[in-house]
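Pilot study result, target chain (158 residues):
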Amino acid sequence: MAQTFAATGQNDVDLPIGNVIRGVLLWGTTSYAGAAPAPTWGQVEVLRDNQHIFYSASDWEVGRGIHGLLGRPFPPCFTHIHSVNAAGAGREDCEDPEVGLSHDAYYLLLPFDVDGSDNYSLETAGAGRVNVRATAEGAEAVRALPIERRVPAGTYLE
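Predicted structure:
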């Protein structure tokens, strides 16, 4: 689901209805960085038929930090090189870790089914609307990629 927020403030991204959703991967044009951070998504909420479910007013930066508590932090970027002209004698390279944005700083995973049992998955069958709501801090492009469990027609699940 890709769209561009028309303005800052409240914006909705609709999710598909009919399958079980195990989580949503969000992407925003701007991440949380700089002197005055303003991530595109800002705060995030998940709603089913206009009722909060799983996430209610969760800040982008807090959502990214939660992954460390779950034991799967986003990786930092260790691929850059600092170059210094050392007194005109040539170039010295330093591969020390960079402090700042990682390659995936623009992504946020909202897991629903954290233990893989589907006990906490979001059932969308019968719902009138399922959406991710943002209190956007930037009128920019975003994406919401639902992680669904798709069951072929005629399959029996216990």
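One observation from the pilot: The CA atoms of residues 47 and 131 lie 5 Å apart. A full batch analysis is planned for the follow-on phase.
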